[in-house]
Amino acid sequence: MTVKNFLKKFLMIIGAITIFSIFMGMATGIFFWISKEDVSDKTFLELNFDKELVEYVGDDPTALMMGKTPQVLDVVEALQIASDDERVLGIIARVSRANMGFARVQEVRDAVLAFRKKGKTAIAYADTFGEFGPGNRAYYLATAFEKIFLQPSGDIGLTGLIWETQFLKGTLKKIGVVPRMDQRHEYKNAMNIFTEEKYTEPHKEAVSKVMMSVFGQIVREIAEVRKLSEEDVLSITDHGLFLGQEAVNAKLVDELAYRDKVYGDIEKKVGDVTFLPLLNYLEKAGRLYTEGETIALIYGVGGIARGKSRHNHLSGDEVMGSETITRAFRSAIKDDEVRAILFRVSSPGGSYVASDSIWRETVRAKSSGKPVIVSMGDVAGSGGYFVAMAADKIVAQPGTITGSIGVLAGKMLTPGLWEKLGISWDEVHTSQNATLWSGIHDYTPVQWNLFQGALDRIYGDFTGKVEQGRGLSGEKVAEIAKGRIWTGEDAKELGLVDELGGFPLAIRLAKKAAGIPENEAVRLKIFPKRKNWMEMLMKEGAVSSEEKTSAMAMAQALQEIQPLIRSLRQTGLLHPSGVLSMPNLGSAEMKF
Question: Is the domain of 400 the same as that of 480?
Fold first, then answer.
């Protein structure tokens, strides 16, 4: 092919893509113009909390193929819009499960309560809350609704909370693995699952405090909306299990009814009602934050690591990559339209270096005159707190797990394991401390001193930046740090966060910090820019139906093995999470 012919074909392809893009843009505009008129005058929005509600879905082709996954902000926005939409009479939600963390439950719960304050109807139904398992979280979410219906064969497992921790010291001993780790300080208890057989006193104190704080929130708020005393709710949780009519008698639900009757009663009362899934409504009604002054929205979700943000298909977890997040901050700083930055953080921490890189960009953003407001999700601890602590304001839900201002590190010595497997090792090295990070060699006294110095340095840097960012004294930080975790409720009292709430409050604070009048509309602009479906497909190449089927099958297989991957990670034999990591909540789990 001649150069001339090549250029001719190349320009034809570019032209075709351009025309296609223009056509798609026009078609999309026409679709939304038409669809906005396509909401019935008598509409009930449908929500299904049996499906997972996530913080953020990255540019992941597999997720694209599996269909749209609802995000927390989708629900919050949709309910805000619907609360002022005369066509929407109410919402009906399936709340048998609540596949999300406790702070996400509180975010959605707040949105439902705000919806009801506008005079709208909110109905929840469930086939069961538990069925021989704890149903506390799902029931707590359901109590935000005006009426709760339970299937006659269902039950409510309102049994209170239990925090169970798996200790692996005995297992590691059996397989010949010796943990050689250290921490700063006694409440940084992730190491304990490898070195202890039960809770130490500081470990028990920390988890008990968090558990009782969360439990207190549940009891108070259930009592308030169900018109019970807190003593009544405490007595109910001591009883624990309520079968069918017992739940009605205890005033925990309003009526026993199957799904068809719940829907049928709405149809009888309203008449020609339309039931519209919430995400479909959001597409038809349009997003809330699309015009006005610009606020950048940056999602920092998942364990923190150097490199790009990504989705870990093996574990099912998101990874917050410092390269992606710092680039997002730099872009927002350079964007003249951006008045403030909203940083949504939901992370148990990870790499110290990556966390520090992100922290630096939050400081640079403030120095550039663009205020930074952090909104915390389920967990924002250790490295997750590190990246947030320099913000102008930090907003957390009462049940957010935060703090964990500490550090731990070390290695697993595995010679005993290899000996049991009949595997021998040998090595040669050049320098005195070449074996520092080897799992075959223990630390020498010199290496142990180097290791301790590294822990001291990181802890000192962390606490010093807490003092600087939060305006706290060194004595105060020394008291509340030590690796200890706190709920958002307690963190506010300690000065680690500023306000309790979710997205709406964080957006109001961002507007205030940027000098934008409270009643003015704003546009949330996501950084980095989200790729559309065409950009993702162009990046990945054309996808045939066979490839799509294979990808969906692979995604399903990965979902099946994710619990195994998480269990293996708990042993510490997989790649470590990083020195600024919180206790793995898979091995230290608060049962809801």
Answer: yes
User: In sequence order, which ranges of 135-271 are alpha helices (DSSP H)?
Assistant: 136-142, 169-175, 192-195, 201-226, 230-239, 245-249, 259-270
Tell whether 483 and 560 lie within a shared domain.
yes
Sequential DSSP letters for 385-398: HHTTTTSSEEEE-T
Q: State the residue range of the domain holding 454.
A: 293-412+442-583
Tell me the longest C-alpha to C-alpha distance in the chain.
86
pTM summary value: 0.87
Last residue of a domain, one of 226, 259, 285: 285
Residuewise pLDDT in 10s, the chain (592 residues): 554 454 455 445 544 444 444 444 444 444 444 445 589 999 999 999 988 899 998 766 555 555 567 899 999 999 999 999 999 999 999 999 888 999 999 999 999 999 999 999 999 999 999 888 899 999 999 999 999 999 999 999 999 999 999 999 999 999 999 999 999 989 998 889 999 999 999 999 999 999 999 999 999 999 999 999 999 999 999 998 999 999 999 999 999 999 999 999 999 999 999 999 999 999 999 999 999 999 999 999 999 999 999 887 666 688 999 999 999 999 999 999 999 999 999 999 999 999 999 999 999 999 999 999 999 999 999 999 999 999 999 999 999 999 999 999 999 999 999 999 999 999 999 999 999 999 999 999 999 999 999 999 999 999 999 999 999 999 999 999 999 999 999 999 999 999 999 999 999 999 999 999 999 999 999 999 876 555 555 554 544 455 455 555 555 555 555 555 555 555 555 545 678 787 654 444 566 6
Cα separation, 405 vs 480, whole angstroms:
8
The count of structural domains within the chain is 2
Query: What CATH code is carried by the domain that includes residue 356?
Result: 3.90.226.10
